[in-house]
Amino acid sequence: MLHFHYGKHNIPLCALILQIMLLATAYVIFFQSTNAPNLEPQLNLVKPTPANRLVVFLVDDLRSKAFFEQGCSNVPHLRELFQQQGQVGVTRSLAPSLKSSGYVDLFCGLYQTPATLLRSLWSRQEVNCVTFNQDVLSYVWASQEFFEKFPQLYKAGVIPSHITGYQLDDWVLQSLNDFLSNEATLLQKTKPMVLLVQLLSLKHSKRYRETLNSTQYNVWRAYQGMERAFPDGLTSYLLTSDGQMQAETPFYLWGAAIPYIEQSPGRSFMANELGKRLPLQVLQQVQLTPLMSTLLGLSPPTANQGRLPVELINASSRLEADASYKNALQLIHQAAHVVRLQQRGVFSKLMSSHWLTLALMDNFIFSCNLLWEQQRYLALKEYSSNYVPTILDCLAFYKGYYRRGMLFATACAFMGRLHQLRSLPPSPSSRRSKLSCVVYSLSFFLLLLVLLQRLSWLMSAVFLLPALIWTLAQRTRAKGSKGLSCRQSTGLILFALCCTSGFFQRRYIAALYFGYNCYYNRRSFLLRSRKFYLWLSLVSALTGLCWIPPSLGYSHRSILVISLLVTLAQPLFSGSLRKMRRNNLLCNVLVLVTAVLHVIYSPQPWMMHFIARAYLCYVLYPRDIQNGMQTILYNLSTVYALICTSYEAVVIQSLCLELQLGLYLKNERHTALSPRAQAIHLFLYSYYSFFVIGDIMAIDGFRFYMRFTGFGCYSTFINILLIILKLLLPLLMIICVISTNCADFWSLRRRIFQKLLILSNSMALFFLFRLRDSGYWWEILERIGHFVIVQILPFVLLILCLVSHTILGASVKSSLRLPKWNAYNY
């Protein structure tokens, strides 16, 4: 293996690089973009266009239930309109990951995947939408957040951030009226033109139905103003929303080129209190994109994946046929791109493929051109519309075509990594040579396969990763000395899989915590000393905490005061009061008393924030003279208490006390913990220190209540650092306890790190198969978080081990230099 040396320290870069490579496979498998790049846009539709201008009302947080309930009584002015003209319906969409992604779906015709959202956040790239291209004159009244997503738009009006409530819509309506009064005369002949109006009052309202009535009245007033400004009858209108967090979102389409249908088969809704029913159109949200393009006489976006609902357009048969054909042609180009990518490999004919081939696509284009030349517009419209579902099915078939293969390759890579970490003793040369020949032969076969199949370089890297790791594992095995037996490795893997239960239910990992502690201290049940009963009480209490609501993400001022006072009295409970320095004790007392006054009265929060930050620097500042483990734990507990909003500080202090008592009972019997037991202790307590106070979703709630802590709530970057500090301080305290009570902890750190890597990679392999690239955004982010957390935890613990080694005293500093981090050297 390669070693990387920096000064006096040998850093485990090889292990870190392998973990990063395993971590990166998840992005390639699930979040790599499969959209066809750089496709040529279609020509615009034939003249005349159905409408000269399109007015889009974007009503944030518009809900179907409130819109349609009681005969649409919450929208009385719009109800009078859609009983006379237009079409009412609902759109269905995938759950967007960001607030603005619903509008990206609407104007681009392509659902935003998590990978697309991450890339747009990273690069801040502009969104290419046909409705806002250079051929369209657009005027937009929207929030600054909307313009950040669509920076190419003309800012007719940016909603001020200090305005709230009903004033949001009033400001937009007043700005729109001023624009129409000054510019409408000059824009009478301008086409195509888009006017986009975003209404935000519903989103920030506590009285939803009252605000909805006011919002729909403002839409009606804006419509009346537009009709007076442009009396030519060539204006189309669309009322919709972003569809965030909803299964169905209402829309209303009316104006030029929109037919009015009173009866049709399918779903319907009650349009008034008298029981009149009108047809309810059901569309996918991306279908509104080609619909808006057709109304303006434009071709759909190159990335559009929505089928044109031509039945909602009242135009000439020639234009309807042209719009349907170009919608299908644009999708054909996307399908042809993915089919060519799949067929360029040597083994493509041996693999499964969709029945829609390139020859059939060419035949479709030829038939459509023939129908156009024969002026059989009705047949062309029906033929194109009926062919679109087949094209979309072809696109869905090739999306993630190699996903299963890459998942299997990544699983093999994880298994090779676990085999490498086992560090088996050398076997007879004949057997070793046979296994090496198999590994090298398979590696050569994989290399040949990816070259002949002409995969992308990212996919090729995923398929070749098992060959790299298994080759390193064979070299490790050839050089290994003493490793883990099959029984020991299986035990670690099964324990890691049991720990995964904590990510789904806190109770499961609580049961594991209780059972593990009782098993490892089972001989202490025979002694039944006073410390044993105290230890057993703490284990039972800490286990029972997972059956009550978590403290993380909630704010309880009275409980927080009690928690601060308990932290203040910790030296009395632990019996370390006489061992502490007077200056250090006085400093902690002043900080905690100030924190109690801050929680009760909050007279000068900025002063408390300054004291908390100064005290953090005091605790983390390296000093040559150390004050002992109890003093360090007291200081760290004080810092942790300043970042709490409830009783978390008491729980973490109790957990550290329980760990000290458990290790004391173990040492009392002159039974030292093995490296495997120390690794399991460190691994289990690291996870339980978090799950005993909350779960991953509770972090978002804590972010909201951070302003009540001693450190306060400032910039996003500072808040993220404080959240990280809150999560890492319990781990540092646990490491300090273990390293103090286990004399050989530092000397056995390499073997402990080996066991931690086995545990984390076993959990990562489980969470790899739970990753998804579709669904609600919090589910996607939660699963990504599980996979990332278990991968980086060993390296976080390694860094905290170095920190604890530094702050615990000068007696262990002589061995600060890290050894070579070879898996075979354990």
Taken from the alpha-carbon principal axes, the silhouette is: globular
- Could you name the ranges where pLDDT drops below 50 across 5 or more consecutive residues? 1-11, 121-126, 424-431, 810-826
> Structural class of the secondary structure composition?
alpha/beta
Average pLDDT, to the nearest integer? 83
Terminal CA distance: 14 Å
Helical content band? 55-70%
Number of helices: 30
Task: Explain how this protein is built.
The longest helix has 31 residues, at 777-807. A hairpin with a 7-residue loop joins strand 8 (235-240) and strand 9. The strands form two sheets. The protein has a nine-stranded mixed beta sheet, with helices on both faces. It has a two-stranded antiparallel sheet with strand order 1-2. The two termini are 14 Å apart. The protein contains 30 helices and eleven strands. With 826 residues, it is of the alpha/beta class.
Summarize the structure.
With 826 residues, this protein is of the alpha/beta class. The chain has 30 helices and eleven strands. The strands form two sheets. The chain has a nine-stranded mixed beta sheet with strand order 6-5-7-3-8-9-4-11-10, sandwiched between helices. A two-stranded antiparallel ribbon has the order 1-2.
Descriptive keywords:
826 residues; 9-stranded mixed beta sheet; two-stranded antiparallel sheet; 30 helices; 11 strands; disordered C terminus
